[in-house]
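Customer escalation, tier 2.

The customer says the design service returned an amino acid string that "doesn't look like it belongs to this structure." They asked us to rerun it and document both sides in this ticket. The original structure tokens are below, unchanged.
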């Protein structure tokens, strides 16, 4: 089957996870993704928003990552794409008033191409007039708009709710991503396999936000069983994350990210129960590398020859565990990575900040297959 190409409709203050997770997950699966925003061109950025419930009457908002566009809105046409993805957040509030945006959405709908929209993204679908007599879900506050536009409302019993009506895939929030992305891939004609694999994520406070959630939900979308653990924390507890961005300074900036929910207890896991290990970066590895139980766990995966995927500062843990000797590695350049244990490195593959910023999460372990 021919390679697939999808359009990602962006805007300032779209939700951080709701743009980056599908953007990088789909690319990891071999789908080409163009991210565009009205009034902006390739290389420009959209500011994102971190939305999460923290016990108030509605969700909180803080600044998210700066998301780099890779195509120009004025140069794209709907007939050049096989599907459309619409993130939520606050961007849909004003994108729903842009006639060029609505025209593109209508063309995807008229051609019956897959449209995947999450959270507040359905405001755009309602404004485009493509939801009449269609069953939809969304963030609960969007219900009145969808009902007024003639949609059949499907109440989300959880914030992971997804609904499919023909070519239209709608979801309540970013908690829906694993099913949402899997359904979209299938709508594109793809097949997903990987449910026999069990993956462990080694987490800590102030790990980098994208570096945990993008691979976590991408692997779940493949059907993998994914557990996330942190020393001294149990299932259901949370780790605060950090947003690291290159914003023109001599090093990256840091902002508070989402709170990431753990799925298992660190004390109950061992390497023999999992097929692979993922280590996010950020600031967590600085202190996790000092934890003997963490080091023992990493050595358990290494000794059994199981895949270990580590990103950015995560390699500090690998260095402390002594599993890098004779290996070719790269990482975020800095004294905490390259210089911490020079004898651990056989070859350092240097990357510039711009390359690191644009790098997409890639998934290519044996027996994880997605054909599009």
């Amino acid at each position: 089957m021919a390679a697939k190409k999808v359009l990602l409709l962006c805007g300032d203050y779209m939700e951080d996870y709701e743009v980056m997770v599908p953007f990088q997950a789909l690319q990891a699966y071999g789908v080409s993704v163009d991210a565009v925003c009205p009034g902006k061109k390739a290389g420009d950025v959209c500011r994102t928003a971190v939305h999460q419930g923290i016990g108030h009457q509605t969700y909180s908002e803080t600044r998210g990552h700066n998301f780099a566009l890779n195509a120009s809105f004025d140069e794209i046409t709907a007939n050049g794409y096989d599907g459309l993805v619409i993130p939520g957040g606050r961007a849909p509030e004003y994108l729903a008033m842009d006639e060029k945006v609505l025209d593109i959405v209508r063309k995807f709908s008229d051609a019956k191409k897959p449209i995947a929209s999450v959270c507040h993204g359905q405001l755009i679908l309602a404004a485009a007039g493509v939801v009449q007599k269609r069953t939809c879900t969304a963030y609960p506050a969007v219900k009145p708009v969808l009902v007024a536009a003639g949609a059949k409302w499907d109440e989300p019993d959880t914030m992971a709710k997804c609904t499919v009506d023909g070519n239209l895939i709608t979801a309540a929030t970013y908690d829906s991503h694993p099913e949402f992305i899997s359904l979209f891939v299938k709508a594109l004609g793809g097949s997903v396999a990987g449910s026999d694999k069990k993956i462990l994520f080694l987490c800590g406070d102030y790990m980098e936000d994208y570096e945990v959630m993008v691979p976590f939900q991408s692997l779940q979308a493949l059907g993998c069983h994914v557990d996330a653990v942190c020393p001294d924390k149990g299932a259901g507890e949370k780790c605060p994350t950090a947003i690291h961005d290159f914003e023109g300074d001599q090093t990256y900036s840091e902002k508070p990210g989402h709170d990431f929910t753990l799925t298992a207890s660190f004390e109950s896991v061992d390497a023999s129960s999992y097929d692979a290990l993922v280590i996010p970066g950020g600031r967590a590895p600085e202190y996790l590398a000092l934890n003997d139980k963490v080091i023992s766990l990493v050595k358990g995966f290494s000794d059994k020859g199981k895949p270990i995927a580590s990103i950015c500062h995560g390699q500090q843990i690998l260095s402390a565990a002594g599993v890098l000797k004779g290996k070719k590695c790269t990482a975020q350049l800095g004294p905490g990575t390259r210089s911490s244990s020079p004898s651990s490195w056989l070859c350092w593959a240097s990357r510039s900040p711009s390359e690191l910023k644009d790098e997409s999460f890639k998934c290519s372990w044996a027996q994880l297959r997605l054909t599009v």
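Tier 2 assessment: The sequence is consistent with the input. The first strand starts at residue 5 and ends at 9. The chain has two domains: 5-189, 193-371. Sent an explanation to the customer and offered a walkthrough call.
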